[in-house]
Amino acid sequence: MLGIAGTTTGLLLASLIAMVINGAGLTWTPPGQAAPVPLRLMVSGVMPLLLGTWLGLVLMATVAALVPANRGARMPVVDALRHV
Predict the structure, then answer these.
(1) What are the boundaries of each domain within the chain?
(2) CA Rg, the chain, in Å?
(3) 9-24 pLDDT tens trace
């Protein structure tokens, strides 16, 4: 649950920051050029990338939670309560 909430919040926040940067009208000068170029971050048309990132991060959080969950499930209840 924490992995889903964290991943969703992170992707939404990253998309919001990208939209703010795109709206700010920032420019940068690439190497070898004299004229500045508008700085644009891709926020539309990358839905498969966002979904793949979301799925990968949720999967990583789930796998990382398996070891402590298995260890805690094998402990006697009295010992598990001492660790809280």
Answers:
(1) 2-25+42-82
(2) 21
(3) 999 999 999 999 999 9
